[in-house]
Known about the structure:
Blueprint: H1 2-7, H2 24-39, E1 43-46, H3 54-60, E2 65-68, E3 91-97, E4 105-110, H4 111-125, E5 133-135, H5 142-155, E6 159-161, H6 164-169, H7 172-181, E7 185-188, H8 190-199, E8 215-218, H9 225-235, E9 245-251, E10 256-260, E11 269-273, H10 274-280, E12 292-296, E13 300-301, E14 306-310, E15 323-328, E16 335-336, H11 340-346, E17 347-348, E18 351-361, E19 364-370, E20 375-377, E21 380-382, H12 388-392, E22 397-409, E23 414-423, H13 431-446, E24 452-456, H14 471-479, E25 487-490, E26 493-494, E27 506-507
Parallel strand pairs: 1-2, 5-6, 5-7, 7-8, 8-9, 23-24
Antiparallel strand pairs: 3-4, 4-16, 9-10, 10-13, 11-12, 14-15, 15-18, 17-18, 18-19, 20-21, 22-23, 22-27, 24-25, 25-26
Amino acid sequence: MLLGILLRGAQPLLIAPPVIRQGVQSSLVEIIQGVVGRVRPALVVATSALRSMERELVAACPQTRIVFGNADLQERDEEADVAVLRHPADLAALQLTSGTTGIPRVCAWRQRDVMAALEGMRLAMRLSEEDVCFNWTPLYHDMGLVNNFLLCLTQGVPLALLAPTEFLRRPARWLCGLQEVGASITWSPNFGFAITAQRVQDEQLEGVNLKNVRAFWNAAEKVHRHTMDEFARRFSGFGLRREALKTNFGCAENVGGATFSGIEEEFRWERVATVALQEEGIARPPEGNESAQEIVGVGRAVPGLQLRIESPDGELLADGHVGEIVLETPSRMQEYLGDAEATRLAVVGEGLHTGDLGYLRDGELFWAGRVQERMNVRGRKLDPSEFERTLLRIPGLRQGCFAVFGVDDLQLGTQRPVLVSELREPVTRPYEDILSEIREKIFDDLGVVLDDVLLVGPGRLPKTSSGKRRHRHFRELYLQRRLEPLVSSRKGSVGSPSVARPSENTSG
């Protein structure tokens, strides 16, 4: 269907399918209503599973034709079966982004933006006619749409797709699929590498040899060295070469990948002093017994793109100093559709302000978090991504499905950290044990005393369509007492299965 839309000269906009459970449906209606109000599409194609919501969707989109499944799309217009040639300035596609709070914004991509992005990626990845790509990330995700579908389509690279649900059900299908199609490149967010290393059994990989896969690209969320090391160790016996593990950074505003690790070298990482990073914004080696953390490099800028690190005042920062990642790029979006103010804040002169934090070291970019998601806990600036490595080691939690945020405490003049995590089904451990382990390991690893810990069921913390966690969105739900956890714990005592309530001195 996506290819047919492009051939007709129409512009696609893909929205992540909802999890039809526990109130997520209403969120989808709000998103569709908000997006349709800005885009005003001629047609909305919804999955058949949403037919029960037909009345709500029709009411939300009165001027738009809505069909469910493919049943109403069988009519053919023979005269329209002709590919449409587009001009470089024409609109190519739309992509949702920054849906971490409320309704996502809509990135508008011109033809020349997309082609510039794909050319830069081709050069950085050294794609050739010998390559074959195998991918399980969905097409509504930037990684699936741009880094796989559009890149392979325009470069003549064969692409094989695995349904994301099949990967999550049986991660071994990813590695087996690489063997079956003779793939040389593949992509996954960090959590995909983690669950594959943890869940795949040797007997599931009979006949699999990964020696011909020259690049496993890790992107779309924070890359953890521990995860990459574990993945390399786990599958080295199946031909995996450590130098095949690669990293990438990109965003929808830049139409895909902006930086890529070197093809001929291992990905880079640094061990830096924790306090200096969190309190001073400086990445330097630890001294003596200083606590330290690891930051993984996400590569160098693609040809034709320049990046810099800026302070909140717009000052250019030197190597090793943390600031906002700003791109000067030929593949920049045209605008946030229908949101001139957000566009003005993101595009300043020739620079695209990504909202991401990082630092440079000899041209290598090290990603450090998101500007608007940082917490200030007793003088320490903490990014939610710093909690992930600890959570990955706790049995019973769904990999990568969590939210961390700070709740303002006016009396103490600081923020109280709150953590929410999805449980993995079936639950085989007592809730109390999981809650206690979360608190203990977060304190041991980060020195942070969590004010509140909430455990929710699978699917209750959906990400944005571009794969971002919605920390600020779930902070608002927490303050509104709408998270409805299975169990919660305040200050070390396990509570009843009801929502954990912020104190009266909390402000939003």
